[in-house]
Amino acid sequence: MTELPQHVPTDRLGVLIAAYEYEMGSCFRCPRKGTQVTRFGEITSDEGETPLYACRECVQELLTMHERAMERMDTRPRIVQLPRAPRGVEAD
Ligand SMILES: [Zn+2]
How many domains is the chain built from? Predict the structure, then answer.
């Protein structure tokens, strides 16, 4: 078995993806479980909020979608690092 070389991001999108803090978990967007995910958003209602964690591959797709949508406006995406939500905490 050959080990993959360590991927060092040099492109702008890669740098953006690497800027997120990752932890082990399940991706909200694809079936990956037990993979590196970052908190990417949340669903909110009057009862509370459910954090959404996305894996690197989905973060890349979401950032690419955002960049394509913003292309005409000549703006760049910026990282908003959402706080980690404690797992298994019940709402009051
Ligand atoms: Zn994913």
Answer: 1
pLDDT tens track, the chain, 92 positions: 566 666 667 788 888 888 889 999 999 999 999 999 999 899 999 999 999 999 999 999 998 888 888 776 666 667 777 888 766 655 55
**Does 61 map to a domain?**
yes
By residue range, what is the domain housing residue 62? 28-82
Tell me how far the alpha carbon of residue 41 lies from the centroid of ligand 1, in angstroms: 13
Tokens of 44: 């909110």
Tokens 């479980």, residue located = 33
- Specify if 33 maps to a domain: yes
Q: Tell me how far the alpha carbon of residue 63 lies from the centroid of ligand 1, in angstroms.
A: 13
Contact 58, 25 (CB under 8 A): no
Distance 92 CA to ligand 1 centre (A): 30
Q: 37 C-alpha to center of ligand 1: Å?
A: 8
Type of residue numbered 1: M
CA of 31 to the centre of ligand 1 (A): 7
Name the pTM for this structure.
0.64
